[in-house]
Structure formats: structure tokens, C-alpha cells
Amino acid sequence: MTNKPTANEKIRVLVAKPGLDGHDRGAKVIARALRDAGFEVVYTGLHQTPEMVVRAAIDEDVHVVGLSILSGAHNALVPEIVDGLKKEGLDDALILVGGIIPDEDFEPLKKAGAHLIFTPGASLQEIVDAIKTNAPKRA
Prior knowledge:
By secondary structure, the protein is α/β, with parallel strands linked by helices. The protein has a single domain (12-74, 89-133), classed as 3-Layer(aba) Sandwich (Rossmann fold), CATH 3.40.50.280. It contains 5 helices and 5 strands; from the N terminus they run βαβαβαβαβα. A 5-stranded parallel sheet has the order 2-1-3-4-5, with helices on both faces. α3 (74-87) links the parallel β3 (64-69) and β4 (94-99).
């Protein structure tokens, strides 16, 4: 499945809160900033299972999947979500991970399929620019 925005199509971003993490203020700030930057944004709400995140990404036909994880479960959740997306044929989506991510976990997350990782201190503009630059594009 190729899911790339056309020249006139808005980039669609799923902002998801997988796992038991109950803190969503940052995810809501990101979602609003992305919407204000012209993206179509779908926010899943709290306590999503990996299966729920994958289903939302497929149902909403997104180009970008942003995972906000503050619980420390990123090493378990990210691979499961990426694998689920691939099994459903959404293998070209840009995968972003944000949250409290120790430096030593960056490489394993990238090997698991995360394209970009943002930690506290990343600017909203940096995230917007990264999506504009890296979201899949159609010919």
C-alpha cells in the first residue's frame, strides 16, 4: 500500500497515545500545532492498544503516525505498532516517536522502524518541519 499525499492533498497525521501513559498534554499541544501548520490531524486519546493505533492509522488513511509515549514502554510498543502497520500494508508511513526516550534507546527504536525521535525540548517548528520534509510524497 502506498499512501503518499498528492500535491494538493493535506498530510494526514495520527497522534496516538499507546499504552498506560495517562499524560496527554504534550500530545494535545503537538496535535494542535500540526493542525495549525495545515496538516489534517487525528488524535486517538489515551490508553490505546497497539492494535487500536494500527486500526486508526489504516481507517484514517494517514501518512504519518506520531506516537507519544511517556511511560517508558516505547521499546515494547513501537515495534509492535510498526509490525502491525506493515502487516496491514501501511509500510511507507513516517513513524515519529516522542516522549521521555533515553539516548541509548534511539538506535533500537530506529531499528524497530521509528524514523524520527523527539524528546522534551524539541520545538514545535522542528516537528512541523520534520514532517514536511520527511512525509511520503506522491509523484
